[in-house]
Amino acid sequence: MESQEGGNQTLEEVTEFLFLGFSHAFRGQAFLFLLFLLIYLITIVGNLAIFALIQLDPRLHSPMYFFLSHLSFLDLCYSSVTVPKILVNFLRQRSAISYNQCMAQMFFLLTFAGSECALLAVMAYDRYAAICQPLRYSNLMSSQVRVPLALASWVWGLLDSVIHTSLATKLSFCGFNHIDHIFCDVPPLLKISCSDTYVNEMVLHLASIFVGLSPFLMVVVSYVFILLAILRIQSNAGRRKAFSTCTAHLTVVVIYFGMANINYNRPKAGYSLEIDILISTLYCVVTPMMNPIIYSLRNKEVKEALRKIWTRGQNEGSMFPHK
User: Fold this and answer.
1) Percent of the chain with pLDDT over 90
2) Which pLDDT value is given to residue 266?
3) Using alpha carbons only, how large is the chain's radius of gyration in Å?
4) How many angstroms separate the first and last alpha carbons of the chain?
5) Hey, what domains does the chain have and what are their CATH numbers?
6) Which residues of 48-67 are buried (b: 16+ CB within 10 A; e: fewer)?
7) In angstroms, how far is CA 186 from the centroid of its own chain?
8) pLDDT averaged over the chain?
9) Which residues contact 125 (CB under 8 A, 6 or more apart)?
10) Residue 35, by phi and psi: left (phi above 0), alpha (psi -120 to 50) or beta?
């Protein structure tokens, strides 16, 4: 890195960033590597299994599971943006990332995060249409509607990411490249920048409203109407059946938006490094692992599809006699 006049450096002269997140955990590097590897493998296998089940089982070819397949693919990509680099850094015992890789990591992280916010709102609307407008559900969630909605969710996250990343490329760091974090994200980069970050911070706050809060409010409004519709159902069995179709999605919404709010709407003074690492790990690493588990445990149709695949595999295996 070369200095400019006055000893300052521009962003383009910073060739790499160093993560300080796990820099003090020298003795626990092997344990952390195995822990993150296990979480990543569960995330990949779980989301691939959900995605494959939806494609293979005709009973899951409905709008709700169409959106769930997108959620599984999003979680798979979301986790793959950060965890492999963390694992590589554990093996190298040097937590570093090049400038270009940092910008790319932040770009894809924000794309998938923003898309998931929008997709969870779309899934809430799907549940509203199914419970509150059952006679019109097939029209409200036809392929001509659900495909553009899924595409719009991806575009929503992409536009948000383009804005943040383009602003980040204009930041200066004055030679300081140590990030108090475990991956590249907007708040940690703003924290170490020596340039004026007012515009970046304002855009970050606006994004938390439009990209984060707006989809969340849509989820809340949808579930208010859903709850009112469920309360009008006469039988307890009918109420339980209606609400059971929403519990998995509602659980995912609470976890995801809750962790996103803590991660991006942090206090002015920030968190301690240990708390920051914990929050970021829960938000970007653990949450994508939890979603397929939640849908597997809380969704009767997914459990039946898993049982059907398992039974078929056992039957096919029994066709071949043991020698």
Assistant:
1) 41
2) 66
3) 22
4) 68
5) 12-305 (1.20.1070.10)
6) ebbbebbeebeebebbbbbb
7) 16
8) 84
9) 149, 218, 222
10) alpha
Sheet with 16-19: strands ordered across: 96-98, 16-19, 178-179
Q: What is the mean pLDDT of residues 31-60?
A: 90
d(CA 227, CA 128): 9
Q: In the structure encoding, which two tokens stand for residue 41, read together?
A: 């493998």
| Distances in whole angstroms, Cα of residue 133 to Cα of each of 48, 224, 284 | 31, 14, 35
Whole-number pLDDT of residue 319: 53
| Amino acid present at 194 | C
Higher per-residue confidence, 117 vs 247: 117
User: What length is written for the chain?
Assistant: 323
Q: What is the DSSP string of 159-212?
A: HHHHHHHHHHTT---TT--EESSSS--HHHHHHH--S--HHHHHHHHHHIIIII
Mean pLDDT computed over 181-201: 89
pLDDT of 237-264, one tens digit each? 878 877 777 888 888 898 888 888 887 7
Q: How far does CA 83 lie from the centroid of its chain?
A: 13
Return the higher-pLDDT residue of 175 and 12.
175
Q: What is the rounded distance in angstroms from the CA atom of residue 134 to the CA atom of residue 268? A: 46
